[in-house]
Design a protein that fits this description.
Length: 542
């Protein structure tokens, strides 16, 4: 905030010097008016800057909820397509490792509300949720809903539940599946708290009924706040988005900025103490008011003309903020070389904008990176593969997709423990990244399942070389503490060199090739051309 302080000091000095030289003490009044105008302009600029940061956080939460709903929908569609009875759901849930990474727990219930399957504990005590509103809404609407924040009957933790109806092969409703998001887990709360790391104020989220979903004080989660007129909660829920600076939060005057989410009836808000938000204004406010008290009509008119001219840089700065909010410019417009008040202030906002951009990049990195291996995760892969197919269609070059499994990975976990299993996954990912080309994209989907997207292939036959290279990279034993273990991989590769192939066709062809490898004894790779009725070639087995 030092550049802002220098701005106000220099601005005040120039106003005083000019007006004293022309109209003696009458200029002090004009200086006071000019500072009040500057304060009004800066309040709006700072508030809009914070609202822009909050909009990015809201978009992150919306995208995260949407991805979780899509995952449950895909699970329900798999149950429908395979015509599975409720008695087989326990095994199906346990087979989906992605669910463990995404949800705190996933449960299935029959139409009477009785628990029939639980991802985290197959021996969980039997409960009935027929009286839960989200269960009744799901059956009534026959579509998925997001619940209000509640206390879980299974774990006792504060959770938000996402539901999805289950149907049999004939399309008849047979039950519901629900995924629980633990509101105390770092995967939900730490990313939000990180946005205010090192800064005053705090972020919080409230549901439409006033119940707290997220708060730095974890004891407030699931509590209904005070929504009386004039309170912070009332201001946050009154309009879809906006800001106010005339509120008290636990007796402290604050700037409140809030934004309503798209996917669910939640509002994310920032409570920012005024002493921090507008710290640079406090030191000059009293002098500005004293100067305005002795303003004369003549000095006032003359002072207004002068200050209006001096405030043009502020108006320009305000235009920059509006252009950035509208997408017409980026934050580099704040990085100016001027050595005056406008330059100091603009560079200060440039630094603030860089921190916001860095926070957005960190959020994106957290959302698209696998925590264990450092590879791309499934979310990035799902977005990247359709783009790769589109590029291949435009260029006419072949594109290939490889799906890899670590052979007998469950045995490693069972015999050496999960810590050793994690070591295998980390080393497997490192060798895999080193074996492929710089133009190839490697991702971990879940558990021991990895994928590689091969672009810019000179010809489909190039995959023979790449497949052998990957198997050779795994040949040396893996060092797991004091134990060395041979780790092998099965690779199913799908190649396409024609336009019009979609993601599902490519994934299905790769799965077919992988199945052929496992049937043939594993530790090999198979290449399947999209559209072929069987695996075209199995190579590389040792």
């Amino acid at each position: 905030m030092q550049p802002l302080s220098r701005f106000f000091f220099s601005f005040k000095f120039k106003i005083s010097a000019l007006v004293v030289a022309l109209l003696l003490f009458a200029g002090i009044g004009a200086g006071g008016i000019s500072l009040l105008i500057a304060e009004s302009e800066l309040r709006e600029v700072i508030a809009r800057q914070e609202l822009s940061l909050l909009t990015g956080a809201a978009a992150f939460i919306d995208n995260d909820l949407q991805n979780k709903r899509q995952l449950l929908k895909a699970l329900s569609e798999e149950i429908n397509d395979r015509g599975l009875p409720l008695s087989d759901l326990q095994s199906l849930l346990e087979a989906h490792e992605t669910l463990r990474d995404t949800f705190f727990n996933v449960n299935a219930f029959d139409l009477s509300g009785n628990l029939v399957a639980s991802l985290r504990d197959r021996n969980a005590r039997r409960i009935n949720i027929a009286e839960r509103k989200y269960f009744q809404d799901t059956l009534r609407l026959q579509e998925g809903v997001v619940s209000q924040p509640i206390k879980s009957a299974l774990s006792g933790q504060p959770v938000v539940v996402i539901t999805q109806p289950l149907r049999d092969a004939d399309g008849q409703l047979i039950g519901i599946v629900l995924g629980a998001i633990d509101l105390l887990r770092p995967s939900f709360s730490a990313q939000l708290d990180a946005l205010r790391s090192g800064a005053d104020g705090y972020l919080f989220i409230v549901a439409g009924n006033g119940v707290t979903v997220h708060h730095p004080d974890k004891t407030r989660i699931l509590e209904k706040g005070d929504d009386a007129p004039g309170t912070v909660l009332d201001a946050a829920l009154r309009t879809p988005e906006g800001w106010e600076d005339g509120l008290l939060d636990d007796g402290v005057p604050v700037l409140l900025v809030h934004k309503h989410l798209r996917e669910v009836d939640w509002t994310i808000a920032l409570s920012y103490p005024l002493r921090s938000a507008f710290a640079s204004m406090q030191s000059v406010r009293l002098r500005a008011l004293l100067g305005a008290a002795v303003l004369t009509a003549c000095a006032g008119l003359f002072g207004w003309a002068i200050t209006k001219k001096l405030l043009r840089p502020l108006a320009k700065l305000h235009e920059h903020v509006e252009d950035i909010s509208a997408g017409r410019a980026d934050i580099t417009v704040f990085d100016v070389a001027r050595r005056d008040e406008f330059g100091d202030l603009s560079r200060a906002f440039y630094g603030l904008s860089q921190r916001r951009e860095q926070a957005e990049q960190e959020l994106h990195h957290l959302a698209t990176t696998d925590v264990l291996t450092g590879l791309n995760n499934r979310r990035l892969f799902d977005a990247f593969l359709p783009q790769a197919l589109a590029r291949a269609a435009r260029s006419g070059q072949p594109v290939a997709l490889a799906i890899l499994d670590v052979d007998h990975f469950k045995d490693i976990n069972d015999t050496l423990g999960h810590a050793a299993g994690d070591q295998v996954l980390v080393e497997f990912a490192r060798r895999l990244s080193a074996a492929v080309r710089a133009s190839d994209t490697v991702a971990r989907l879940a558990g021991d399942e990895f994928v590689i997207v091969f672009e810019q292939l000179s010809c489909p036959a190039e995959m023979h070389v790449l497949g052998k290279r990957i198997l050779e990279a795994m040949h040396a034993p893996f060092t797991l503490g004091s134990v060395q273990r041979v780790v092998q991989a099965s690779i199913g590769i799908a190649v396409t060199h024609s336009a019009g192939v979609d993601v599902e066709e490519l994934m299905r062809a790769a799965d077919q090739a992988l199945y052929g490898v496992k049937t043939a004894g594993r530790n090999s790779f198979a290449i399947n051309t999209v559209g072929a009725e069987r695996v075209a070639l199995v190579r590389g087995r040792s």
